[in-house]
Amino acid sequence: MNVTLRQLNAFINVAETGSFTRASDKMHLTQSAVSGLIKELETNLNVVLFDRTTRQLSLSVVGHHLLPQARRILNEMQLFENEASSLTSLAQGKVRLAVSQFAASSMPAVIAQFTKCYPDINVTLLDCSAEHVLQHIENIEVDLGVGVELTEVDEDENLTAELLYELPFCVVVPEEHRFADYEKVSWNELIDEPLITLNGPFIDHVTLELNEDIANQIKNAPYKVNFMSTALEMTRQGFGLTLCLPYMPEVIDWVSANRLVLKPLSEPVKLRKFYIYQRSSRALSPASLKFKEFLQRYFDDYFNELAKMHLVSF
Hints:
This protein is α/β, with parallel strands linked by helices.
């Protein structure tokens, strides 16, 4: 068997574009050359990778099964090239990063500061759902992942997780609201307050381990929106109070600049944990290790600032 990287690359491009013509344009080859690579691969493997008709080209059952493996092999090769390149200098290389929703909001600021310190290291950012962070790491599409706590990691010996930071759930209120003078607000004090919450799994994490009355109050909030920016603006306009995580400095700055106040919620104090994920079987390149260390220092400094604001304690 003599499977080549060019054959695998052709397979992936045809599968992703659904067309030999579009794949050939993408690969800067003739259509017949791409078709020949696919035929060679099918012959080498003794399988049919695509179902062909006069009008349509689609992956066969076998093709669907082998496509993730082909991607993983090419990602392995790309990683090999990146690591070999980065070894020429500790200040060079490429870092591929996958982040979930809340982590994604803070990451551009981190990358911007990192780039100032290490201009020769290129950091690419892939924002995705929390579950897909692990998938991208498994497929070696990224070097590091940052996201919320996931139980799947405990069941997968190929993945490791290190706590990066944990955020307290807070409530955002107008400056004139009675809660603005409180040092902290208990969850039960939110009962009968008009609330603005986010759709999706955010609510499940908020209400976990709360008593039934306040949990129902949150789940049946009169306003449910998709974006934190919408919730904050609705609070500013007087629609109600917003539950949030102080996940980036810009949020805290926006709250303060718009006559709003952020107060930690207590009884109980609820924390949302965020982790750095990576493959346990693969050492990080010098560039990725440098970014990981920078990331940890960045959030250590950020949480020192939150502590001064009495939003977190150590």
